[in-house]
Amino acid sequence: METSNDTTNEPNTRVQAPYDMQYMAVEMELSRILIREVSDAQIIELREIEGDRTFPIVVGMPEAFAIERSLKGIKPPRPQTHDLLASVITHLGGFLHQILIDDLRDGTFFAKLIMIQGGDDYSIDCRPSDAIALGISHGVPIFVEESVLDEIQRNPLDNDEHKPDEDQFDWD
């Protein structure tokens, strides 16, 4: 059995999965990340690729640092949890097709890893922060369900961390 340490997705392996047809999702990309070492809550913002909407989400310090390391091209000497998961999926003959943030209930976002293995697609429940960190570090497209974006536009994050009309961060 031949194995590889490469856990990135090959561009030519992307196919339209049956799962794609079940959701009205919008592809997003990382717009900015705010890491404040004095707080446990870090904020990342995703931006709609073919539009103007944004999606701010609070993530934990480990996920924020994992995203930052990935953006800077820093490889830790040992695999981190996100790398381990991607490696397991790859070694089992699958690949990550997409990340999908698909629900918002009681102020909590929900996400799924969409994996394809042997022509079948699998939806794996996970925390959005883990999914986003995995997606960014391994080049997996990130989607947000249209209804979640609509809810965010109607009811923006109601805390002191981020207010769309009053951007309090120095993003530079």
Describe this structure in words.
The chain is 24% helix and 33% strand. The longest helix has 12 residues, at 61-72. The chain has a single domain (17-154), classed as Roll (Bifunctional nuclease domain), CATH 3.10.690. Strand 5 (108-117) and strand 6 form a beta hairpin. It has a seven-stranded mixed β-sheet with strand order 3-2-1-7-4-5-6. With 172 residues, the protein is of the alpha+beta class. It has helices at 61-72, 81-91, 128-137, 146-154; strands at 25-34, 42-48, 54-59, 94-105, 108-117, 120-126, 142-145. It has four helices and seven strands. The chain is globular and about 40 Å long.
Feature tags:
172 residues; alpha+beta; Bifunctional nuclease domain; seven-stranded mixed β-sheet; 4 helices; 7 strands; globular; disordered N terminus; disordered C terminus
What is the topology?
Elements: E1 25-34, E2 42-48, E3 54-59, H1 61-72, H2 81-91, E4 94-105, E5 108-117, E6 120-126, H3 128-137, E7 142-145, H4 146-154
Parallel strand pairs: 4-7
Antiparallel strand pairs: 1-2, 1-7, 2-3, 4-5, 5-6
Helix pairs in contact: 1-3, 2-3
What is the typical, i.e. mean, pLDDT?
A: 80
How much of the sequence lies in strands comes to: 25-35%
| Count of alpha/pi helices | 4
Q: Give the low-pLDDT segments.
A: 1-15, 159-172
**Looking at CATH, which topology would you report?**
Bifunctional nuclease domain
Fraction of residues in H or I helices: 10-25%
Largest sheet: 7 strands, mixed
Give the CA-CA distance, first to last residue: 47 Å
Tell me the series of helices and strands, N- to C-terminal.
EEEHHEEEHEH
**Total number of strands:** 7
CATH architecture type: Roll
Supply the helix-strand structural class: alpha+beta
How many structural domains? 1
Q: What is the highest CATH level, the class?
A: Alpha Beta
